[in-house]
Specification:
Length: 461
């Protein structure tokens, strides 16, 4: 039988190899967004496939058609356990976000991982390179500790298009349904509570994204000659956007639901900690009502994430005839995305200023996730995380959205879904200077070994 002490020692002894493999993976600029080299995503998939074969699995690169052309390549790998042992599906993704403004990174090349203190910096170090590498090395070490066998049957699905909304995800699940079907699904793509404190994510908000366009003129006008009777489209848009929140900062769209905060075991989140984690400037007041965890996890949130306006460097004395804003609405668990979209459109139509012409173009619609059930797999995960980290695991929600998790649950309704943490509040995923805390990475690998061993009945408490 495998012991927690033996697992922790084995991970510690081979941890240089873990970091080296993460560094090599980060070096492949596997940006899946349009306009970037798709060959790098293919290269990344082949690299991950080789890593999994090196860990003792049969692995292949696979892709299915997407709605707008071929899907980006994923990796599918498998290794049998004993007959009638639990079937476990491990998920992560090998594609990454663009680097953004390279000048704002401390290192010259965001794809050349750089260690500073206890953190490894680079695009994809945490999101989701750490998830990929945790799966690879957990499987390798588990087999080594268990007589070159796995105690359960394991399938690994490493997606290649998560960062662009997983457009071919449902088709992939349907195509490989028999191979992906599992009793337990482990998604390594969320966050821990803080460095050194592990967490299971038990709720995720859904997302509704729309582009809102206002037209007020059929051509631009001189702002002095015609200003006054005509409100320019940018000002009209500002007035419309201002109706989306009340004076306290709560979302003011009728028909959206809120829920009580997450499951038992949810930690308190102090305002001081939140301000530090989020980098809120001194003197800036926090928006909304209720405790911070409910505002972050189980109440709706709405933001303008983009707007087409005239840049300052080319601005003239002109009334803009049109303006488009992109709105991102995060919806509470239990809220239907289509119902939320209907409510948002109704609000916009009701509040259009000065009779401007409104056009709403629907973008991403993603369901929320509620995984708060007290299942045997969740109890095994809490034990494994607590044993690996040496700190009690907690349940948390996430304000962000991972819509494919709801798709997994819909496709495999009997599976127990676990969403595990890779990141921490200072990871800065999607931003400049993304990083992974190496101490947490060591604990995460150990936790996954222990979880799989526990699910397969091969661990001594």
């Amino acid at each position: 039988m495998i012991t927690a002490h033996a697992v922790r020692a084995a991970v510690r002894e081979s941890f240089d190899r873990v970091v080296s493999d993460l560094t090599d993976l980060v070096a492949i600029p596997s940006v899946s967004a349009a306009g970037h080299d798709p060959a790098q995503v293919s290269r990344s998939a082949e690299h991950v496939s080789a890593l999994l074969r090196g860990a003792g699995l049969e692995a292949q690169v696979a892709a299915v058609p997407g709605p707008d052309g071929p899907g980006r390549p994923a990796v599918l790998a498998h290794r049998d356990g004993p007959a009638d042992s639990p079937r476990v599906l491990l998920y992560a993704h090998h594609d990454v976000q663009p680097v953004g403004d390279a000048a704002r990174w401390r290192q010259a090349d965001p794809f050349a991982a750089e260690r500073r203190g206890e953190r490894l910096f680079g695009r994809g170090t945490a999101d989701d390179g750490a998830g990929v590498i945790a799966h690879v090395h957990a499987l390798r070490l588990l087999a080594e500790l268990n007589g070159d066998e796995l105690p359960c049957s394991v399938t690994v699905f490493i997606e290649g298009e998560e960062e662009v909304g997983s457009p071919s995800f449902r088709t992939f699940l349907n195509t490989y349904r028999d191979r992906l079907d599992a009793d337990v699904i482990v998604v390594a793509d969320s966050s821990n509570w803080k460095v050194g404190v592990p967490a299971l994510t038990t709720s995720l908000r859904g997302v509704v994204q729309v582009d809102v366009r206002l037209d007020v003129l059929d051509h631009a006008l001189h702002s002095g000659q015609y200003g006054g009777p005509v409100i320019d489209a940018v000002t009209a848009m500002c007035r419309l956007v201002s109706t989306l929140h009340d004076e306290r900062g709560d979302v003011a769209v009728d028909g959206l639901i809120s829920r009580p905060v997450a499951a038992p075991g949810t930690p308190d989140y102090s305002e001081a900690d939140f301000r530090a984690d989020a980098g809120v400037l001194e003197g800036v007041e926090l928006a909304g009502t209720g405790d911070l965890t409910s505002r972050l996890w189980t109440k709706p949130a709405l933001a303008v994430i983009g707007m087409d306006v005239t840049p300052l460097q080319v601005a003239g004395n002109v009334l803009s005839p049109s303006c488009t804003a992109r709105l991102s609405l995060r919806i509470a668990p239990g809220q239907d995305p289509d119902a939320a979209l209907t409510a948002l459109k109704a609000h916009l139509e009701e509040h259009v200023p000065f009779g401007a012409r409104l056009t709403v173009t629907v973008g991403e619609l993603g369901p929320a996730f509620d995984g708060a059930a007290d299942t045997p797999a969740a109890r095994a995960a809490h034990w494994a995380l607590t044993s690996a980290f040496g700190a009690e695991a907690v349940n948390i929600g996430q304000g962000g959205s991972i819509p494919f998790i709801a798709t997994l649950k819909e496709t495999f309704p009997e599976a127990q879904v676990l969403v595990t943490g890779i990141e921490d509040p200072d990871t800065r995923a999607h931003s400049e200077d993304e990083s992974m805390h190496l101490g947490d990475l060591e604990h995460i690998v150990a936790a996954e070994v222990l979880l799989l061993a526990r699910l397969g009945g091969a661990v001594a408490d």
